[in-house]
Write a structure and sequence with these properties.
The chain is mainly α and 254 residues long. It has helices spanning 3-14, 17-34, 43-51, 63-94, 99-117, 122-125, 142-151, 157-171, 174-197, 199-211, 213-233, 235-247. InterPro entries: Cyt_c_assmbl_TM_dom (IPR003834), Cytochrome_c-biogenesis_DsbD (IPR051790).
């Protein structure tokens, strides 16, 4: 098998039509999770903790230290989320013979996650599973804090993360599930790193987002509900087919 054939086969395996549709949804889901009311207000505290720099000194801290601390934190929770995506994707492969029924079940569950995110079931939505143990302060504890953050099941990111995991199971391979979760982690992690590099400027942007939290919630919940409706009605498969036809026209040049 030559290099071109190998690259083409890999592209078809990893970037099929369903994944091309799911990737931007996962990326947006990560952004919505970052800007959610239970993550964004804690960003200064996380940055202070993972860099070992006091909150009042964050704006004057060295960019190299801020970048390293934020990156290690993001790598920590990404390791947890990507592993989960691979697990859900691999499990989905075992259930392929029931794909038609499960697609509609996943659609209904994603709609439920959207309703939870919109706050329509406050008692259920406020439930959480969390590890309250904190690792050591500073760069050495940054990846461990990221792992603790990733294992935590907070009310705000829980529905979004669950919806992306359901999509990972829909992908039906561990690799595609992991790739999907990488997109989610980029959506959540890149803003965190940007905030670390431009802390003072990011505060004003965060203030604007806080004043428009209602729209963050509506966009996140609406996106999940729309995805669930597409899965239930079969519109998802129609769009996936069109993407497969569209992507088949592309060639990889070495």
């Amino acid at each position: 098998m030559d290099v071109l054939t190998a690259v083409t086969d890999t592209n078809e395996t990893v970037l099929g039509g369903a994944l091309l549709l799911a990737l931007p949804l996962a990326l947006i889901g990560g952004l919505v999770s970052f800007f959610s009311p239970c993550v964004l207000p804690l960003v200064p505290g996380y940055l202070s903790y993972v860099t070992g720099v006091g909150g009042a000194d964050l704006a004057e801290a060295r960019r190299g230290r801020m970048l390293l601390g934020a990156s290690l934190f993001v790598l920590g929770f990404s390791a947890v989320f990507v592993s989960g995506g691979a697990l859900f994707g691999g499990f989905g492969y075992l259930l392929q013979e029931h794909r038609e029924v499960l697609t509609r079940v996943f659609g209904a569950l994603i709609i439920l996650m959207g309703l939870l995110y919109l706050g329509l079931f406050p008692r259920l939505g406020q439930r959480e599973f969390r590890l309250h143990t904190r690792p050591g302060l500073g760069l050495a504890g940054a990846p461990l804090l990221g792992i603790v953050f990733g294992i935590g099941w907070t009310p705000c990111i829980g529905p979004t993360l669950a919806a992306v995991n359901f999509l990972a199971m829909q992908e039906a391979t561990a690799l595609r599930g992991a790739v999907l979760m990488v997109a989610y982690c980029l959506g959540m992690g890149v803003p965190f790193i940007v905030a670390a590099l431009a802390f003072r400027r990011s505060l004003s942007a965060f203030g604007w987002v806080k004043r428009h939290y209602a729209w963050v919630i509506r966009i996140g919940g609406g996106m999940m509900i729309a995805t669930g409706v597409m899965l239930i009605t079969g519109l998802w498969d129609v769009i996936v087919y069109e993407l497969m036809v569209w992507s088949a026209d592309f060639q990889v040049w070495i």
